[in-house]
Amino acid sequence: MVIKFTSTVVDPPALLYMGVDKYENEELIKYGWPEDVWFHVDKVSSAHVYLRLPEGMTIDTIPQALVNLSIPTFPFY
């Protein structure tokens, strides 16, 4: 199950999608948008996160608070 997370550290809020294994990562690739930004999660094997940029934001203007965001850890992972 791909996880959808809304971050409110920026305004407007940003959407993030996370896959925890190769199957979920394939789903992210399949349904991702060209302007989504891809991250690999530190210290979590195979975890990928896609940031859907809010309108007006570019890869060059992503706030550091959003880049360093801590994604909640769910007990079933």
UniProtKB/TrEMBL annotation:
<comment type="subunit">
    <text>Interacts (via cytoplasmic region) with ILK.</text>
</comment>
<protein>
    <recommendedName>
        <fullName>Coiled-coil domain-containing protein 25</fullName>
    </recommendedName>
</protein>
<feature type="domain" description="NFACT RNA-binding">
    <location>
        <begin position="1"/>
        <end position="64"/>
    </location>
</feature>
<comment type="similarity">
    <text>Belongs to the CCDC25 family.</text>
</comment>
<dbReference type="Pfam" id="PF05670">
    <property type="entry name" value="NFACT-R_1"/>
</dbReference>
<dbReference type="InterPro" id="IPR008532">
    <property type="entry name" value="NFACT_RNA-bd"/>
</dbReference>
<dbReference type="InterPro" id="IPR039730">
    <property type="entry name" value="Jlp2/Ccd25"/>
</dbReference>
